[in-house]
TrEMBL record:
Cofactor binding, per record: Binds 1 Mg(2+) ion per subunit.
Protein name: dITP/XTP pyrophosphatase
Originating species: Ramlibacter algicola
Function description: Pyrophosphatase that catalyzes the hydrolysis of nucleoside triphosphates to their monophosphate derivatives, with a high preference for the non-canonical purine nucleotides XTP (xanthosine triphosphate), dITP (deoxyinosine triphosphate) and ITP. Seems to function as a house-cleaning enzyme that removes non-canonical purine nucleotides from the nucleotide pool, thus preventing their incorporation into DNA/RNA and avoiding chromosomal lesions.
CDD domains: HAM1 (cd00515)
Quaternary organization: Homodimer.
Superkingdom of this protein's organism: Bacteria
Lineage of the species this protein comes from: Bacteria, Pseudomonadati, Pseudomonadota, Betaproteobacteria, Burkholderiales
UniProt keywords, alphabetically: Hydrolase, Magnesium, Metal-binding, Nucleotide metabolism, Nucleotide-binding
Pfam families: Ham1p_like (PF01725)
Residues that hold Mg(2+) according to the record: 41, 70
GO annotation, biological process: nucleotide metabolic process; purine nucleoside triphosphate catabolic process
Similarity section: Belongs to the HAM1 NTPase family.
EC number: 3.6.1.66
Length: 201
């Protein structure tokens, strides 16, 4: 019976979001940093390969089942980039790493671009052990448009500039529980909860 799962992330926002969604399983999510596990290398060009590498790394170091998420923004006008480089997007343009600078750099790069369609993508991978031959994989996508300026107070990352047409609002303008229910990470987490319930518990 799985009771604890290591989350291969040090992002507190991500941990809080996922912990709320995993609560029904009665499983405790533990941040890898709290177990003294260093961050894994992420050398790959797809979310899936990076998430799998991070999950295997956390399982190897902890001896526990592990869960890793690799997520990013895929902008149509940029051929799907920044993708796996989303966290470091701002650094390509001389800004320090960080959410606010990522948003600033994106809006600068998109100035004058008509096609503003983009998707936030989250790939969640779960492994029972470092060598698990059957990783659980869940993918969530939230498609929207990049706004001209940030809007809203909630969320993190690109939430203030990700306009979701069916709500007529950015993710940062939605109440957190509504955002979590519809976000890329929310979709992936719901699938993962079902997979864990079906295969691991």
């Amino acid at each position: 019976m799985v009771s604890r799962i290591v989350l291969a992330s040090n992002n507190r926002g991500k941990l809080a979001e996922l912990q709320a969604m995993f609560a029904p399983l009665g499983v405790e999510l533990v941040r890898q940093a709290d177990l003294g596990i260093p961050e894994a290398e992420e050398p790959f060009r797809t979310f899936l390969e990076n998430a799998l590498a991070k999950a295997r790394h956390a399982a190897q170091h902890s001896g526990l089942p592990a869960l890793a998420d690799d997520a990013g923004l895929c902008v149509d006008a940029f051929g799907g980039l920044p993708g796996v480089d989303t966290a470091y997007y701002a650094t390509q343009f001389g800004y320090p790493k960080g959410d606010d600078n990522n948003v600033k750099a994106l809006l600068e790069q998109m100035r004058g671009i008509g096609n503003r369609r983009a998707a936030l993508v989250s790939t969640l991978v779960g492994v029972r052990s470092p060598q698990d031959p059957e990783p659980l994989v869940a993918v969530g996508r939230a498609v929207g448009e990049v706004t001209e300026a940030p809007r809203g107070e909630h969320g993190f990352g690109f939430d203030p500039v990700m306009f979701i047409p069916r709500f007529g609002k950015t993710f940062a303008e939605l109440p957190p529980e509504m955002k979590n229910a519809n976000s890329h990470r929310g979709q992936a987490a719901r699938q993962m909860v079902d997979l864990i319930r079906e295969r691991w518990l």
